[in-house]
């Protein structure tokens, strides 16, 4: 049997960081995000003739083969692949090993700021769901992905990515204590999506980064109750509500203005969010006519989103041309994770 799945990556438009514990547990967090036509992909082959399970990350050129006996230690290469397999076997297959080959690849590198790691976990779960006919709804898949990353693998991070890729489209998400999450889908007119796509530029800085240090900084900020960074987190949350209102009222100019405020507030939550390279990109883009910009994801590198008047787009592209980064065309997508049998 062969199944395939794909799950969309996301842009974090506002509120990123407020989905982290302990902030969202104490104060409640909210995030506005949207999925785009870049994906994490998975193919699973299951055959009783296989004497082992194989995990193959084609984009990373890594492969791990394991015996079909007991739980796989979560160490070494492809830990996420192993962790998803362990959960599926123990939670949904009565502990019986699965003779599978799991192939994955992603349209963006790890550390991109587009939620690629969580999206990869969701797309693997989605493929196993189709393979084994598992009774999992959207909230179940997203929560399971969160548990695998944050509990099983002990990886630092928030909650928005798992829900964004599972549900798809534009969503305003609310996060509370005890893992309470509310996903509010937003219906946006096609003309507004067209205008957003014409004004938003997606730029890869050329630097992948680990989000763990930035996330740990923000966790320490919340635990220490340091007034300035904590107030910055409150500002980030407030701006997410305002960004949602601008979007629903088709006020793209207002969204651009809020991007600028959101970026300033986000930088104030951790000294690791901006870097000399990011500042150079910002200076060049703004001097060439960009209206505002911000990092998608935790910061430190990955992808940046720039609001640019379409008439000045070529000038901005030219201003960034000699840097090591690259511009990535994209479209918004309305569908979340999908899986199918071949």
Automatic annotation (TrEMBL):
Domain GHMP kinase N-terminal: 84-169
This protein's UniProt keywords: ATP-binding, Kinase, Nucleotide-binding, Transferase
Family of the protein in this entry: Belongs to the GHMP kinase family.
Every GHMP kinase C-terminal domain range: 246-320
Example of a GO MF term: ATP binding
Name of the protein in its database record: Dehydrogenase
Keyword ATP-binding: yes
Domain of life: Bacteria
GO BP terms: GDP-L-fucose salvage
């Amino acid at each position: 049997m062969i199944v395939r799945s794909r799950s969309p990556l996301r842009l974090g438009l506002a509120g990123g960081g407020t989905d982290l514990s302990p902030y969202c547990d104490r104060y409640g967090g909210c995030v506005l995000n949207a999925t785009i036509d870049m994906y994490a992909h998975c193919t699973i082959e299951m055959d009783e003739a296989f004497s082992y399970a194989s995990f193959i990350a084609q984009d990373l050129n890594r492969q791990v083969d394991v015996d079909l006996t007991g739980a796989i230690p979560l160490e070494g290469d492809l830990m996420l692949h192993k962790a998803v397999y362990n959960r599926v076997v123990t939670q949904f297959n009565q502990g019986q090993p699965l003779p599978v080959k799991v192939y994955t690849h992603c349209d963006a590198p790890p550390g991109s700021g587009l939620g690629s790691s969580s999206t990869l976990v969701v797309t693997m779960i989605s493929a196993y769901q189709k393979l084994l006919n598992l009774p999992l709804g959207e909230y179940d898949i997203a929560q399971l992905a969160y548990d695998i990353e944050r509990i099983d693998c002990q990886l630092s991070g928030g909650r928005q990515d798992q829900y964004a890729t599972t549900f798809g489209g534009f969503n305003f998400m609310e996060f509370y204590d005890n893992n309470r999450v509310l996903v509010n889908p937003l219906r946006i007119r096609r003309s507004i999506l067209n205008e957003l796509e014409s004004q938003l530029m997606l730029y890869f800085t050329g630097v992948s980064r680990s989000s763990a240090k930035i996330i740990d900084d923000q966790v320490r900020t919340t635990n220490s109750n340091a007034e300035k960074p904590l107030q910055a987190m409150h500002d980030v949350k407030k701006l997410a509500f305002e960004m949602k209102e601008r979007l629903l009222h088709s006020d793209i100019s207002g969204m651009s203005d809020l991007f600028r405020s959101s970026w300033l507030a986000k930088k104030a939550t951790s000294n690791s969010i901006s870097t000399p390279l990011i500042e150079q990109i910002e200076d060049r883009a703004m001097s060439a006519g960009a209206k505002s910009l911000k990092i998608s994801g935790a910061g430190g590198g990955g992808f940046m989103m720039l609001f640019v008047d379409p008439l000045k787009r070529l000038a901005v592209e030219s201003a960034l041309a000699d840097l090591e980064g690259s511009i990535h065309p994209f479209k918004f997508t309305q569908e979340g994770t999908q899986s199918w049998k071949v």
